Amino acid sequence: MAVDRKHNAIYITDTAADTTSALLVLDINTGLVRRVLEGSFATIPEDKPLVIDGKTVNMQGKEARVGVNPITIDVENKWVYFAPMSSRSIYRVRTADLLNTDLSAKALEKQVERYAAKNMGDGITIDKEGNLYVSDLENNAIGVITTDRKYSVLHQDNNILSWVEGFANAGPEGIYATSNKLHRSPAFNNESPTPNKFYILQFTPKAFASFGR
């Protein structure tokens, strides 16, 4: 989820089924929750396999297709960035549009912008200058999308960075990330034994990593 402290709102990814993925918009003041962008091109998975270590990842006996999952918000609380896990694109939409209850579903979808290319991944965060850090499942890596909207691998390790999932900004301590080899678990490829080595990682971002992203 992404917390918008300027507008007292929280934006949450609702992965759901592959055709019904959506975002949730929570008004902290009233408790009202709205479900938006259901089944949008920006929230449902692309029809492409996720391949890690040369093997296609499966879920419940068929190729994995996972909808919107990673999400973050910039430090100005102006843009929300998000993507399906099974996607090679990252999208963004203004908080003003997400909060505008007068917009129809189609009108809101028209405000969504394809921001940049990426590899399939399970987490994103952003620094003070607008550089996006993304989980790169296909390359066992952490990638970065700089403000010129170009993607590159920042750190890569076939063991330590196997299925990077979540990020946490820690200000002067940089960014923390978790790695869990989830694709080797019974929930996905029914492999045994379940991986039992998990990692908490720390790296230095290109700019200050403001808390709460």
TrEMBL record:
The compartments listed are:
Secreted
Which InterPro entries does this one have? Answer: 6-blade_b-propeller_TolB-like (IPR011042), MRJP/yellow-related (IPR017996)
Coiled-coil features, chain-numbered ranges: none
Organism superkingdom? Bacteria
Q: Does the keyword Secreted apply?
A: yes
| UniProt KW keywords | Secreted
Question: Which source organism does the UniProt entry give?
Answer: Paraglaciecola aquimarina
The record's annotation in Gene3D superfamilies points to: TolB, C-terminal domain
Q: What is this protein identified as?
A: L-dopachrome tautomerase-related protein
Q: Short name of one Pfam family for this protein?
A: MRJP
